[in-house]
Amino acid sequence: MTQYTVGVDFGTLSGRAVVVRTADGAEVATAVHEYRHGAVERTLPATGDPLPPHWALQIPSDWVDVLRTAVPQAVAAAGIDPAEVVGIATDFTACTFLPVLADGTPLSDVLPQEKHAYPKLWKHHAAQGQADRINALAHERGEPWISRYGGKLSSEWQLAKALQVLEEAPDIYARAERFIEATDWIVWQLCGVETRMIGLAGYKGVYQDGAYPSKAFLEALHPGFGDWVSKVDGPLAPLGGRAGSLTEEAAGWTGLPAGIAVAVGNVDAHVTAPAAKAVEPGQLVAIMGTSTCHVMSGADLADVPGMCGVVQDGIIPGLWGYEAGQSGVGDIFGWYVETLLSGGLTHDELTERAAAQKPGQHGLVTLDWHNGNRSVLVDHGLSGVIVGQTLHTRPEDVYRALVEATAFGTRTIIEALTSSGVPVTEFIAAGGLLKNRFLMQVYADVLRRPISVIGSEQGPALGSAMHAAVAAGVYPDIRAAAEAMGKVSRDVYVPDAAAADVYDRLYAEYQTLHDYFGRGANDVLHRLRALREEVSR
User: Is the pTM of this model over 0.70?
Assistant: First the structure.
């Protein structure tokens, strides 16, 4: 019998399900479900109350609706017998994190009027103050785990978000019997068993060398925070592990057979690596969309400044998984087109005009911090900068400079890895921005590297389906699944030497501005943010 698995990718604004043939990775059918509430960033749906700046929430029922709609639609479109599906796996944006009761009920279902009861989306950046204090105390106490996060724990990760709940809504913190990553929560709904993926615990929860941060450290941060570990500790499961079996209730949602394998949850970026056949040391995969996540495995452990995390077995079993990222990429382009230009020109029109220019022709340099900086500065209090504008600057000039800035940000990450003794041997691109060939060529020129491209438009969902195949026993491990089901085209974009020479000069200017505004020489971006928040209050 031909066997299939289903991969479900939960993104920022929608979820998609893909039915994949396990024999060769053929993607038989896809269905997408847009979240009814999208990303909640302006007002709380239950009350209409405005949210403070830098908040980003989601609604758990939107995720369950993906299981109810996208999965059965994809199976129906595939034209297969649901009995041929042997497993299901999920991935999520991370850190997307929610407080729940002991049975998994989201606190937002119980207390819909309380903003801190809701899941905090990955791009919730309102806990930067908490992150700053966590980092300062970790260095003061010499906590060994801080080096695994490039010397700075992100405000996007669990510890800062949870500390924000405790300090701003102590009743909500006390009411929460568990805090859990969204991908682990959705697996709980599918199989009725609470599990925690070991990689997520490491990257987002500061679980290193078999332990979370000590109770003494947590109490020193804030009295009462010492019980934090009791709210997140639980059975840790490996990549590709079987979390349990599909329950009768979840079978009713999805139309899949009860009892099939439910794989341990995962991160959207991490599952994309094996989908692109990146299972060996040095193969860096950049998942390029609203933000960009850079994931790579290495044979050895190294301290790399500005990494989001380094976790043993975090991406590929047996290797050290390195994660870095840029908090805004496609989001920056969308902001420019939709907000600043107010619909005057489309992405396609701007791309065509920008592609007609030569590198350096616009005379601009931009810092790509419109949504803060994840790597290598790990500072979401930073903001975007555009230098060089004149009365002759055209919309396409700025658009091209923004594209180049995101490429410079990626080059900064690669140089941090290589200079720390973690060589990058191949750059593989995945994600929605692959559709923009101009952008991809700019990246090849800026990086001075050929760029390979994943052979799937649904990299995370394909990667999840591959992990489902491992959980179902179709393949013994993710390397074997990647060999059979992964897809990649090598060296699709090759750098142009003349363009690369100009970009070297522009990159030097970018680095000067990067360090001037980002490393404390001029703290104006933080002062402006503080002033904005003061006036808003």
Answer: yes
